[in-house]
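Journal club side-thread
Mid-discussion, someone asked how the predicted structure for our own chain would compare to the paper's figures. Pasting it here so we can look after the session.
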Amino acid sequence: MPLENIPGLRWRLVLISLLVCGLIFELGKCLNSDVFHIYVLPPAANITVTFYHTMSLCLILPGAFFEVDLLFHTWHIKVLSRGKFRKVGETITVQAGSALELRCRGKPVQWGVPPYLEEDDDGRLKIVQHERYGVLTLINSTGADTGEYTCYPMYCKNTDCRRDYNKAVKVFVFFQDPQELFVPTSDYYEVIQMRTNWPTVLPCQVTSPEAKVTLQREFPPVEVTVDGSEISFDVKKGFTIHRPQPHHAGELFCVASLGSLRQSSTKYMLIYVNYPLAPPAPVIQASSTSLSVGGNLQVSCTVLGERDVVVEFNWEYPGQQIGRPLYTQESVTAVSQGSAQQQQSQSVLLVDEVRDVDQGTYTCTAGNLQGTKSASTTVKVVTKDKTN
């Protein structure tokens, strides 16, 4: 019996023809692209995310995709599962307990995983390099696995290989746990030092992007305003204080809520430190560059800088070699420079009844949180008869 007389077959042939035309159209668009694409299977027991470099990936048929190799121009069809694929952005959400598989085209590739998984020793994480792609597999996932997963294409010359950071591809995976809204941590209490002009991050990461998160102050008990400018929230990082000030100091914590579940994060003790813009610039001066044996010597080291910045002084001096004790006087005073208030920090080295061994170079090193700088001066000691 002719094929066209089989009931329904004619319409199936027409449908297949239309799908093939669609394949050719989509294939043409793929060939014009040379970027990474990330796709994920719809909710299922296993989630597959595929990264492609130096090739494009187009999803054509339900449950199948075309791999178009731009290097050899060969076609491959692989059926993953029934259903439609969807292109994902920077994040995906997976139910805790599911298995995750990440596939990255390249020979070879390396993987970056969240810190918790870097210390994995129970065999849940497996990385395999195949001939043309690498595969990362994670089983028995938990909320603690939440974080950023990165594929680094490797640039190799002979046996020397290095990561190509410019072509790395990243995806942030949330492992949604109905019992744990925050990524678990072993720290109940964490001290964070805030620095002037340096953003401070409170790393209260959540396991679900749908969780509502607020920032709370322990005392007085009040919700901290998050305006997106002074303080902002990123579901992948936590809260960021962009320009820390003294009033931000204190004990803070995060509160997450999702449905009927409400949980608190680790408590963060924020300590404010006025962080200088630059290392100190010491100026050294001796009371005399030439003095007689038995005279008294004072060598001052002065730093002019920002207020409320701690400056530490260290000395190197000739008498140090024979064990002469170090005697210093240190002071901090406020000074006016036009309309601006500055701080003068000073250390004075005292040498009583100088001897021949005190002749030489005196060096002062001043340091703050940004670094250290040194200044030196030379002192000559002469006998009394040579000064007459």
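Post-session note: Residues 9-31 form the longest helix (23 residues).
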